[in-house]
């Protein structure tokens, strides 16, 4: 059928419409609450506007010769149409508030609305980054307090707040390491970064971006990084290791302290990927493990919302050895308690600062939310949250262990439970099929096919935010799916999802003939 | 604790199922000497009211822009954000979702990203745009890295009109990545000869317009010179509302356009979160950093959207990726998209006209004060004034004491550059005639108060 713009919403030449959908086809194509929503450009027009703007008093333009002859060709919607357009779009999305979102490595926990309210106080949201510092003492105090909480929780001496996400924090950490190595006069020779095969893609990407050579630390059968493997790779050329702890297999690295010591003895630095900090807040301080730099994804552990892919924040805690190289800007506390900003690298306290990673001072909106989350929990609540996250993951693990296969046997996990696809052998089904069937059951799937070192990985991170009732329902649904798979009920999987707004999407087609923007349909000649 | 659903009884049952007697047994892999037996030395949990009081006190120690006549810009602008925008971005399904890795249940995010890409491409005058970067400054550094990949050359030339923070971020990131960056000296009058700096080793020239001093730059001759030398033109825009009134960078021949999108839909937020726009010619799409959303169909042939061309990205290509970016600025993109939906091209043009009219009105009034000179030959909504012989930072402090936030002293961005008497002044649609009068009166009083040094 065609929608109002003559674009096909259901094409005849693609895969046949599922029988049930065909039988119950509606005139509009809508299905009650599930509405087909065209692109805003298809329903908008350049005659409409959703904002009332007055005509300015007469003026003489000072634009030189650069005034555009015509407005940009972008249709608008009135306010009620805009509201409906985006509400309908939102209804095609799954969020934590919809249901359980056990996406491993992503820490999809509850997002308290108090944090949203606090971040929107005009004293935080409506403040310009370059106002005189006397007029932003409260904002600097938020940064100072957030730093205090992060330092106390990690047991580290310094923190650089400005990175805008975890990967940006990785850049900061490796830049500080590179600067420290250069200061030691070893800049030419120490150019290797060790990265375990199980690492997140941002780790090797960050190291490579900075011109390091990436050497892979092999995966082992027990999911851990082995001291012997690291020692075998150490040498005068090794600048650092990037180790995730707890690692992406959901395990606390058993030899982490020894690995850190070996690395330090060989003149290298220990970068810890702190994406999984949620497992150990208030339980273990990374500073006690020998960490030199670690980013903390505030949008994971401290619940600043993911927002469909950001914005995040990735402050980096630093050891004494790296702290002097931290970039500008940072907050300085004067003897009188007055707070100020150090904004220039190369002078004073910032004499060795390696430069700057972003305009202005970082993610104030995220700092306020994270601090609100911390104040609400308190030190005691944060510790409890981590314990609950670990408890819940193990509860899921233990409840599925008899039906699924765990690559590393029966050992406890941290905040996420990892399964492989060995249990799907002979069923003809894949990890992806399980994920899509979970969608039909009303859950967001777990992380699939990551970490890469486990075949058909299913990484389940329930977080501390799930009730026991919710965990039990998830477990029951997973058990039912597992039994159906083993029974050979392939039809339940291969056509899934059937109850989502769309069925499986053709990713190959998207990549082969990329359509990356709407273009105005050409009038038919 | 109000956010934690498990009860003591639940925890006991769960431990039993797992087969351990205490939760610490699950931490057995942590070195015992590192496992803490007590909560950290931090305040205990607090109820909502107590947190509101505590953070409310801190917020009250800031002077909010809306509470005073306000004229700051320099890469972050105060605009009116329609109520609809802030309501919609707080919809649970947007706010609490993740990167759209499961497209069947993330069409909401994916469709607005596709709409965002369309808007960003149209505004910049380019063929393709990605699904956002962290902010304009990091997008700028990424553009230089991309130009280096495309041209296989290693020297980038930065205009002296580029925002000093952008220049510093670019020097830092690209310096570490092994590029050499030539920065031209601060160019208050927009009179630099950047074309003569383009050589056979140049990967790109980076030019901002309106530049940091507010002047509008004619990019076409620079684009032409770059093209002839096999280099790229990276155009930078820090005030996205200017797209409404000015000839687009794409129309002037830019190869890559990066912009700060904060002005559309997003609050000042003391510097972040913001949203970086990144657009380019389509022939360069496989060298672009960040996520791209593309159109496709589902198994029933219905139109849908997915993240695509992922073979550029870190989760597929690891150390061969075009960038290490993962999380970007999703929700800020949404705010941008909604505000742009309300405005459309015509609305944006009208909004831009109001901005320009307000800035012209302010410039004329300030120029009438003795000892104040407007230096710009052209501008959009921000311009530079010289306060003859005065320290602009001192003037700004004194204005603040009189309840006016009156601009950004150039020395805040370029200390030690000998530009201490220069003040950047921005005016947007939020400023009223009363604001201008308050500013002009306060400035006259302050200038009278301090003797010229
Ligand atoms: C283990 C790990 N490291 C790094 C990152 C990158 O963090 P961000 O997306 O905040 O840049 C992630 C997030 O996806 C992650 O899971």
TrEMBL record, chain A:
It catalyses: N(6)-[(R)-lipoyl]-L-lysyl-[glycine-cleavage complex H protein] + glycine + H(+) = N(6)-[(R)-S(8)-aminomethyldihydrolipoyl]-L-lysyl-[glycine-cleavage complex H protein] + CO2. Keywords: Oxidoreductase, Pyridoxal phosphate. Gene3D superfamilies: 6.20.440.10, Aspartate Aminotransferase, domain 1 (3.90.1150.10), Type I PLP-dependent aspartate aminotransferase-like (Major domain) (3.40.640.10). SUPFAM superfamilies: PLP-dependent transferases (SSF53383). Its EC number is 1.4.4.2. It holds the Pfam family GcvP2_C. Residues 190-307 form the Aminotransferase class V domain. InterPro entries: Aminotrans_V_dom, GDC-P_C, GDC_P, PyrdxlP-dep_Trfase, PyrdxlP-dep_Trfase_major, PyrdxlP-dep_Trfase_small. GO terms for biological process: glycine decarboxylation via glycine cleavage system. Residues 385-486 form the Glycine dehydrogenase C-terminal domain. One of its GO terms (cellular component) is glycine cleavage complex. GO terms for molecular function: glycine binding; glycine dehydrogenase (decarboxylating) activity; pyridoxal phosphate binding. The glycine cleavage system catalyzes the degradation of glycine. The P protein binds the alpha-amino group of glycine through its pyridoxal phosphate cofactor; CO(2) is released and the remaining methylamine moiety is then transferred to the lipoamide cofactor of the H protein. PANTHER family: GLYCINE DEHYDROGENASE (DECARBOXYLATING), MITOCHONDRIAL, GLYCINE DEHYDROGENASE, DECARBOXYLATING. NCBIfam families: PRK04366.1. This is glycine dehydrogenase (aminomethyl-transferring).
TrEMBL record, chain B:
GO terms for biological process: glycine decarboxylation via glycine cleavage system; nucleoside metabolic process. It catalyses: N(6)-[(R)-lipoyl]-L-lysyl-[glycine-cleavage complex H protein] + glycine + H(+) = N(6)-[(R)-S(8)-aminomethyldihydrolipoyl]-L-lysyl-[glycine-cleavage complex H protein] + CO2. GO terms for molecular function: glycine dehydrogenase (decarboxylating) activity. InterPro entries: GcvPA, GDC-P_N, PyrdxlP-dep_Trfase, PyrdxlP-dep_Trfase_major, PyrdxlP-dep_Trfase_small. Pfam families: GDC-P. Residues 1-403 form the Glycine cleavage system P-protein N-terminal domain. Transmembrane segments: none annotated. Keywords: Oxidoreductase. The keyword Repeat does not apply. Its EC number is 1.4.4.2. The glycine cleavage system catalyzes the degradation of glycine. The P protein binds the alpha-amino group of glycine through its pyridoxal phosphate cofactor; CO(2) is released and the remaining methylamine moiety is then transferred to the lipoamide cofactor of the H protein. NCBIfam families: PRK00451.1 (NF001696). The glycine cleavage system is composed of four proteins: P, T, L and H. In this organism, the P 'protein' is a heterodimer of two subunits. Belongs to the GcvP family. N-terminal subunit subfamily. This is Probable glycine dehydrogenase (decarboxylating) subunit 1. It comes from Camelimonas lactis.
């Amino acid at each position: 059928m065609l929608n109002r713009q003559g674009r096909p919403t259901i094409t005849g030449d693609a895969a046949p419409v599922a029988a049930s959908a065909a039988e119950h086809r509606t005139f509009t194509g809508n299905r009650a609450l599930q509405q087909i929503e065209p692109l805003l450009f298809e329903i908008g027009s350049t005659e409409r506007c959703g904002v009332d703007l007055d005509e300015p008093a007469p003026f003489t333009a000072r634009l030189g010769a650069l005034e555009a002859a015509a407005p940009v060709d972008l249709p608008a919607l009135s306010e009620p149409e805009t509201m409906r357009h985006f509400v309908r779009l939102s209804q095609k999305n799954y969020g934590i508030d919809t249901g359980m979102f056990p996406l491993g490595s992503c820490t999809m926990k509850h997002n308290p609305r108090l944090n949203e309210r606090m971040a929107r106080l005009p004293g935080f949201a409506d403040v310009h980054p370059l106002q005189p510092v006397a007029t932003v003492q409260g904002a600097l105090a938020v940064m100072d307090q957030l730093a205090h909480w992060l330092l106390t929780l990690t047991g580290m001496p310094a923190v650089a707040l400005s990175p805008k996400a975890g990967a940006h924090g990785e850049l900061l950490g490796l830049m500080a390491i590179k600067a420290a190595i250069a200061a030691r006069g070893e800049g030419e020779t120490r150019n290797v970064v060790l990265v375990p095969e199980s690492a997140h893609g941002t780790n090797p990407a960050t190291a490579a971006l900075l011109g390091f050579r990436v050497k892979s630390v092999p995966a082992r059968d027990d999911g851990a990084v082995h001291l012997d493997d690291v020692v075998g790779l150490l040498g005068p050329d090794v600048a650092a290791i990037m180790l995730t702890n707890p690692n992406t297999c959901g395990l606390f690295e058993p030899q982490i302290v020894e690995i850190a010591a070996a690395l330090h003895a060989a003149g290298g630095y220990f970068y810890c990927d702190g994406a999984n900090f949620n497992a150990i807040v208030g339980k273990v301080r990374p500073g006690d493990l020998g960490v030199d730099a670690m980013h903390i994804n505030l949008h994971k552990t401290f619940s600043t919302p993911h927002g469909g892919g950001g914005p995040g924040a990735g402050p980096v805690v630093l050891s004494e050895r790296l702290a002097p190289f931290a970039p500008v800007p940072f907050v300085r506390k004067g003897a009188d308690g007055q707070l100020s900003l150090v904004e220039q690298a190369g002078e004073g306290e910032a004499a060795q600062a390696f430069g700057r990673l972003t305009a202005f001072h970082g993610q104030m909106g995220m700092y306020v939310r994270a601090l609100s989350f911390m104040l609400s929990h308190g030190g005691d609540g944060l510790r409890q949250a981590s314990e609950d996250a670990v408890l819940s993951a193990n509860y899921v693990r233990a409840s599925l262990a008899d039906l699924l296969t765990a690559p590393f046997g029966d050992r406890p996990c941290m905040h996420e439970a990892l399964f492989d696809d060995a249990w799907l052998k002979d069923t003809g089904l894949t990890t992806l099929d399980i994920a899509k069937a979970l969608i039909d059951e009303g859950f967001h799937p777990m992380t699939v096919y990551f970490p890469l070192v486990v075949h058909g990985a299913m990484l389940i991170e329930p977080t501390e935010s799930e009730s026991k009732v919710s965990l039990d329902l998830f477990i029951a649904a997973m058990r039912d799916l597992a039994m159906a798979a083993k029974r050979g009920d392939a039809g339940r999987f291969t056509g899934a999802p059937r109850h989502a707004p769309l069925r499986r999407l053709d990713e190959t087609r998207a990549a082969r003939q990329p359509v990356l923007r709407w273009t105005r349909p050409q009038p038919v000649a | 604790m109000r956010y934690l659903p498990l009860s003591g009884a639940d925890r006991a049952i769960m431990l039993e199922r797992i087969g351990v007697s205490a939760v610490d047994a699950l931490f057995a892999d942590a070195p015992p000497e590192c496992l803490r037996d007590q909560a950290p030395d931090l305040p205990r949990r607090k109820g909502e009211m107590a947190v509101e009081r505590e953070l409310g006190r801190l917020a009250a120690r800031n002077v909010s822009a809306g509470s005073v006549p306000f004229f700051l810009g320099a890469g972050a602008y105060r605009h009116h954000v329609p109520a609809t925008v802030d309501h919609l971005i707080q919809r649970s399904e947007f706010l609490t979702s993740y990167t759209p890795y499961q497209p069947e249940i993330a069409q909401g995010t994916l469709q607005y990203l596709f709409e965002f890409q369309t808007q960003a491409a149209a505004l910049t005058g380019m063929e393709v745009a990605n699904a956002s970067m962290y902010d304009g400054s990091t997008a700028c550094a990424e553009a230089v890295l991309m130009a280096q990949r495309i041209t296989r050359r290693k020297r980038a030339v930065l205009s002296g009109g580029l925002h000093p923070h952008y220049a510093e971020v670019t020097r830092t990131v690209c310096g570490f990545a092994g590029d050499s960056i030539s920065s031209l000296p601060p160019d208050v009058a927009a009179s630099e000869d950047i074309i003569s700096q383009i050589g056979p080793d140049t990967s790109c020239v980076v030019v901002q317009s309106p530049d940091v001093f507010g002047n509008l730059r004619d990019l076409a001759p620079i684009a032409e010179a770059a093209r002839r030398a096999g280099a790229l033109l990276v155009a930078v825009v820090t005030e996205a509302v200017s797209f409404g009134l000015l000839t687009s960078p794409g129309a002037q021949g830019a190869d890559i356009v990066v912009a700060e999108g904060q002005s559309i839909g997003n609050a000042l937020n003391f510097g972040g979160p913001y949203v970086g726009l990144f657009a380019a010619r389509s022939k360069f799409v496989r060298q672009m950093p960040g996520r791209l959303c593309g159109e496709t169909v589902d198994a029933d042939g219905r139109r849908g959207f997915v993240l695509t061309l992922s073979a550029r990205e870190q989760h597929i290509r690891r150390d061969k990726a075009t960038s290490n970016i993962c999380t970007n600025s999703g929700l800020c993109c949404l705010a941008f998209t909604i505000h742009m939906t309300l405005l459309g091209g015509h609305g944006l043009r009208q909004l831009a006209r109001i901005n320009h009219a307000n800035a012209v009105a302010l410039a004329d009034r300030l120029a009438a004060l003795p000892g104040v000179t407007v230096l710009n030959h052209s501008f959009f909504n921000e311009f530079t004034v010289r306060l003859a012989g005065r320290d602009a930072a001192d003037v700004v402090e004194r204005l603040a004491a009189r309840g006016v936030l009156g601009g950004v002293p150039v020395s805040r961005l370029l200390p030690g550059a000998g530009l201490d008497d220069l003040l950047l002044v921005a005016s947007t649609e939020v400023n009223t005639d009363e604001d201008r009068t308050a500013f002009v009166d306060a400035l006259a009083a302050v200038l009278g108060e301090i003797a010229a040094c």
